[in-house]
Amino acid sequence: MKAHLLFIPLFLLSSCMVDFSLADNADGGTDTDTATDTDTDVDTDTDTDTDTDTDTDTDTDTDTDTDTDTDTDTDTDTDTDTDTDTGTECECTTGDCCDGCLYLSTSAQCDSTAEDTQYQCTDTICGADLEQRSSYRHCTGLESDCTGDNIVWHSWSLAEDCAPGSVCDAVSIPGQCIDCAIGCTSGTCDGCSQGSNVAPSASPMTSSGGTGSYGPSQLNNGIYEITPPCYFSWVTAPSTPGSAWFRLNWSTAQTLWGIWIDTNLYDDAATCWDGSTLAGGSIQWWDGANWITDGVVTGELDDWGYQFSMPIYTTSIRIYGAHASAACPGQKTNPLIYELDAYQCL
User: Fold this and answer.
1) Which residues make Cβ contacts (< 8 Å) with residue 127, sequence separation at least 6?
2) In sequence order, what are the residues at sequence separation of 6 or more whose Cβ sits closer than 8 angstroms to the Cβ of residue 202?
3) 46: which residues sit within 8 A by CB, 6+ positions away?
4) Which residues pair with 189 in a beta bridge?
5) 42, 114, 169, 335: least buried by Cβ within 10 Å?
6) Tens digit of pLDDT for each residue in 150-175?
7) What's the whole-model pTM score?
């Protein structure tokens, strides 16, 4: 069998090569698609990052706003409180006349102890009532301390309702209603004359001093100043009024006119106890609740007497603030009484 050779013209061969080249290009196209996929992946990654960043920013903004609002509220409250407290500058912080920031006004009383007390009667008739008023420390309005620079008298008020047959006494301290022992006429207790000595029926007492033959029993034993043995009663006291006293007590009330004191002559060297003359004291009587001062005696140099301003009805009298005469040439202390008489009203 005869073999046949295939002859292909050159131009045809070239065309075939072109076709093969195109086939190769088709394979390269596949590579191009892969590159495209890479681009797509990049775009997707980019979108994801962007979304994530946006969400993060939003969350951060929200948190920041919340913190800011909270801080603002707190600051506002604090400022408001501070403004309220410091709206007026404080003048003080402590003291009887300070309310913690400002001075109290002059109407504020800062001490409960009365500086002084006054008494008055509502009328001059029998049975007029007794009134009193007291003065107290008030704040000055200029300082926190209760200094006493502003003393204010308070209003009058009823102190005692006097009975119809009594007299209002606003002179004595404290003031009092005095029951008239005999009667009352035109606002004055009816007077009386000196009666008998009722001292011997009383029980004698003294504050302190002598005892035994120089004790209280010598006050009303009926033995007056004589030459020795010179028994008397004496109390411990200087030549100025203090708290020493001589006293007579009765078991039943007495209506008294006055008293008499037998003491020694201040400069008589022949007396039993030179230098111990009773110069005086406050003459007081007991009204059942208080000691009432009827009068004050001082400067006496020998025996002396005292008539009550009106008849008194009492169970006890005393000489309070008993003191020796400063004119005595002797010791000028420890006043003595030989005998203390008390006379009834007639």
Assistant:
1) 162, 163, 164, 165, 166, 168, 184
2) 220, 248, 249, 250, 342
3) none
4) 184
5) 42
6) 999 999 999 999 998 899 999 887 88
7) 0.55
